[in-house]
Amino acid sequence: MRVAVIGTGYVGLVTGACLAAVGHEVVGMDDNPAKIAVLGQGGLPIYEPHLADLVAQTARAGRLRFTTDVAEAVRDAAVIFICVNTPPRPDGEADLRFVESATRRVAEHATRDTLLVEKSTVPVQTGHWIQKTLALYARRPGLTFDVASNPEFTREGMAVEDFLHPDRLVLGVAHPRAEAVLRALYAPIVEGRFACPVHPDCRVDRAVPVLVTDIASAELIKHAANSFLALKITFANAVADVCEAAGADILEVVKGVGLDKRIGRAFLNAGLGFGGSCFPKDLRAFVKIAERTGYDFTLLKEVTRLNAHRQVQVVEKLRQALWILQGKRIGLLGLAFKPHTDDVREAPALALARRLLDEGAAVQGYDPQAAAKAREAVPGLTICPDPYAAAAQAEAVVLCTEWPEFVGLDFARLKAGMVRPLILDGRNALDREALTALGFEYLGIGRGRPVPTPPRTP
Ligand code: UDX
Ligand code: UDX
Predict the structure, then answer these.
(1) pLDDT tens column, 114-171
(2) Rounded distance between C-alpha atoms, residue 366 and residue 383, angstroms
(3) What would you measure as the largest C-alpha separation in the chain, in angstroms?
(4) pLDDT tens-digit map of 339-348
(5) What is the CATH number of the domain that holds 282?
(6) What is the pTM of this model?
(7) What whole-number distance in Å separates Cα of residue 56 and Cα of residue 66?
(8) Cα distance between residue 92 and residue 191, in whole Å
(9) Which of 132, 160, 251, 370 has the highest count of CB atoms within 10 angstroms of its CB?
């Protein structure tokens, strides 16, 4: 099928490349000419595992191309995905002006009956507004426009796998026509009829559950799912704080709790808190959506408050260990909001860096992928070329993002460059016993009482 994707960012690029990979003909459109230029030359404006290969393969096969011209993208498209960003406004409401602008341009340039699909995370009732806008601005008489909500559940760093092997597909539709189009579009994925470009030997051993529902319910599923995941993380962080005070070990507690199949171990990792372009934004949007319906979602307000407090708690942990932060050099391992991405949107590492800089500390950091974006986001942060440079002359090092390469560092070498061997493991990703044996003062998150530091070797 001919597919258009409007907005070729993290969501749009993955959507376009994966649909092309399963056999569709995709045109990706973006208003940012620099992005389209990079894509046109075979480059990628973001880092996402497997995506560069996928874009290159499908572009070479002539099934994926890019343009800044919306008329070209939309022409003859049977399905048009809206993947523009929906950033939070200061009051927390999602800013939908890009969604409206994309909708109007589809109405003006569509040349055939088409299905407009909300892929971006949008508040409930957005589908209603999109339908009205299409009717208002449709240029060609007699065209039929359908609208659907097809929320994405892809995680950054896993987005290609999550798109090609989803836990479920949610199709929010108002007419059987729209359901038929989406079922045809996703058939290769639902039935596993495609050569997986990521794991050649992977077998899709189960049909993907497809939930067909109304548009409003589909829109709410996305906010409810993300908010629940953020709530689950925040619960683990709160229990970690109790563990710290009670001398229990959060890793043991969540292991036991996670064995209950009603709960599950995933998303119970205590640490620096959650970041990214989704959870923080979607929580605030969901609270506003609920408010508009007359419900005061205090539970989610508390999740947002507790999550922002994580970095305050880490600064206090450092103050407890270092006394005066002013003038102290502190190294950060990891700056992206999670591993396997270059995305620093609402990254806890950068929130921590800002707080430490406000305290007058000298902050230096390293990240394998996010260095450029971090430098832009926090000008006062010194970017280092490698993890050892990030620890050089530091009074403390904080592991903020659990990149696999940090687990395997030469910690003796790291320690040798530090003024004081203090390491705060912000993601409980490191081996406390091994580091303590090496002479580090190890601080975890909720790992019981701090392990007594061995007498300082002269
Ligand atoms: C974002 C959020 O992360 C995601 O939660 C939400 O569901 C959709 O919006 P993402 O792909 O991460 O998705 O946003 P971003 O990387 O900023 O990409 C948006 C793209 O849309 C950008 O490339 C931007 O240039 C483009 N865009 C935006 C347009 O082409 N036209 C517009 O009018 C607005
Ligand atoms: C999330 C949802 O998982 C995905 O389904 C949705 O489509 C988009 O938003 P993403 O934000 O890309 O995906 O990453 P995710 O892996 O969910 O992590 C989000 C944040 O939570 C990261 O900052 C991560 O460090 C943090 N996190 C995650 C924890 O602190 N503890 C955990 O146990 C899991």
Answers:
(1) 999 999 989 988 999 999 999 999 988 899 999 999 999 999 999 999 999 999 999 9
(2) 6
(3) 86
(4) 999 999 999 9
(5) 3.40.50.720
(6) 0.93
(7) 12
(8) 39
(9) 370
The verdict on 134 and 254 lying in the same domain is no
- Distance from the alpha carbon of residue 276 to the mean position of ligand 2, in angstroms: 7
Q: Which of 180, 195, 167 is nearest to 57 (CA)?
A: 195
C-beta of 271 in contact with ligand 2 (< 6 A)? yes
Whether residues 298 and 151 share a domain: the answer is no
Q: How far is the CA of 407 from the centre of ligand 1 (A)?
A: 33
Q: Which domain holds residue 304?
A: 249-443
* Closest listed ligand to the CA of 118: 1
In a domain, 219, yes or no: no
275 lines ligand 2 (CB under 6 A): yes
Domain count, the chain: 2
Nearest-CA residue for atom 31 of ligand 2 = 269
- Is 390 within 8 Å of 397 (Cβ atoms)? yes
Is residue 154 located within the same domain as residue 298?
no
Residue 161: how many other CB atoms lie within 10 Å: 18
Give 7 Cα–ligand 1 centroid separation in angstroms.
5
The answer to whether residue 231 is domain-embedded is no
Q: Which ligand is nearest to the CA of 348?
A: 2
| Number of alpha carbons in the 13 Å side-chain half-sphere of residue 238 | 12
Rounded Cα distance between 50 and 282, Å, is 26
Mutational test site, ligand 1, from 18, 84, 103, 281, max ligand atoms within 8 Å of CB? 84
